[in-house]
Amino acid sequence: MPKPPPLHRLALRDADGAIRVVIEAIQGSRNKLKYDPELALMELHVVLPLGVSFPYDFGFIPSTLGEDGDPLDALVLMDESVPPGVVVPCRLVGVIEAEQKTKKGKTKRNDRFLLVASSSHRFRHCKDLVDIATDVIEEVERFFEFYNKQKGVEFRAIGRHGRQRAEALLRAGERKAR
């Protein structure tokens, strides 16, 4: 039996065409794990301060690469959280385009892709960014501003776009990973 690829090298889409997302942090958790391809395991990366937790499950889209050198970041709307390391089939609904300024002052793009779990009941109506309440998007942006500030990094949302723009950015991330 052939050995499966490491999580960051899984095929971007499953047989049904759903986008795969590998979960690294679950909704309500203070722990952010990060996939280590050398170990083929999740490793504790950051613990958020008391009173702060991830608003939704968060992870990465395999077989993609962002400007920051990591796979593209994904926020997944679903009914119940799943454990870190689980692969969730999703549909893309939009993207928060963002820039991050490192401690050394270098600015890089680090977008947040918004997806809905294919099996979600609660979010089944969400097909595009306009289907998600504006205040939810604003809360997500504020969370990432605070989350990055704790690491000494400035996060700034520079645009919100629907599925069509998100798909174009996803394809660019896929090409970059090849």
Topology:
Layout: E1 19-25, E2 31-36, E3 41-47, E4 57-61, E5 72-77, E6 87-101, E7 107-109, E8 112-117, H1 134-149, E9 154-162, H2 163-177
Parallel strand pairs: 5-8
Antiparallel strand pairs: 1-4, 1-6, 2-3, 4-5, 6-7, 6-8, 6-9
Q: Into which percentage range does the β-strand content fall?
A: 35-45%
Number of strands: 9
Task: List low-pLDDT spans.
Answer: none
Overall spatial form: globular
Number of helices: 2
Mean pLDDT: 95
Instruction: Give the helix level as a range of percent.
Output: 10-25%
Task: Kindly provide the radius of gyration, computed on alpha-carbon positions and rounded to a whole number of angstroms.
Answer: 15 Å
SS-based class: alpha+beta
Largest sheet: 5 strands, mixed, barrel
Distance between the amino and carboxyl termini: 25 Å
Widest β-sheet, arrangement of strands? 1-4-5-8-6
Assembly state of the chains shown: single chain
Give the topology string: H per helix, E per strand. EEEEEEEEHEH
How does this structure look, described?
There is one protein chain. With 178 residues, this protein is an alpha+beta fold. Helices cover 17% and strands 36% of the residues. It contains 2 helices and 9 strands; from the N terminus they run E-E-E-E-E-E-E-E-H-E-H. The protein has helices spanning 134-149, 163-177; strands at residues 19-25, 31-36, 41-47, 57-61, 72-77, 87-101, 107-109, 112-117, 154-162. The strands form 2 sheets. Strands 1-4-5-8-6 form a 5-stranded mixed barrel. The protein has a two-stranded antiparallel ribbon with strand order 2-3. A hairpin with a 4-residue loop joins strand 2 (31-36) and strand 3. The two termini are 25 Å apart. 33% of the residues are buried. The model has no long low-confidence stretch (mean pLDDT 95).
